Predict the structure.
Amino acid sequence: MSDTDIRAISAVLRARGPSNLLVFGLGAESPLWLALNHGGRTVFLEENEFYVKYLEPRHPGLEAYDVSYTTKVRDFRDLLEAARASRAAECRPIQNLLFSECRLAINDLPNDLYDVAWDIILVDGPSGWNPTSPGRMPSIFTTAVLARTGATAAKGPTDVLVHDFQFEVEQILSKEFLCDENRVAGSGTPSLGHFVIRPDGRRDAFCSGQDSTAATSSEKTAGK
């Protein structure tokens, strides 16, 4: 992660902390996120169970869980179309993810994580560097649902940060589920998208005007 991205994320953590912080992905920056959120709860979700077992004893207080992903980057357009087709049913924006049948939903986390009102969610995993990588489709969709479920007037909005935002999957899935209307203008960097999710009362659409196709096959950016 670049120094520019680290500074941008750190600024959000300082502004909201101590907070409930959920991070998809473990990496070299993980101890920094943990330290900056001192006094809050920081949870990491990682695709590599061996990396979780390696880091936890080396960083006291680090709370991390391994996640098994079944998606593949090569299938992301089919997965997106399936989610659109069931946006008012299995893939709706407000739901209990524990019982979700949406193919993009992550529903095997520890039960209590679904009840946390997350203040900040950082999407920096899982990997998406080749067609057989799991890609960040499920982490972005699950983030969108968690943010809308936990975004209440009492708690305030959820800041969502998407790393590697210059890539196709991250851009298209963010546009579909986090929404351009929620993106913070002038915030983040070219490789970091910053969204603020607030409760809006919609229960069958993530973004305004979603009766039309939000992303098309012509939307191309640099691939991984």
Q: What stands out?
A: The chain has one domain: 3-197. Residues 3-197 form a domain with the Rossmann fold fold (CATH 3.40.50.150). The mean pLDDT is 89. The two ends are 15 Å apart (CA to CA).
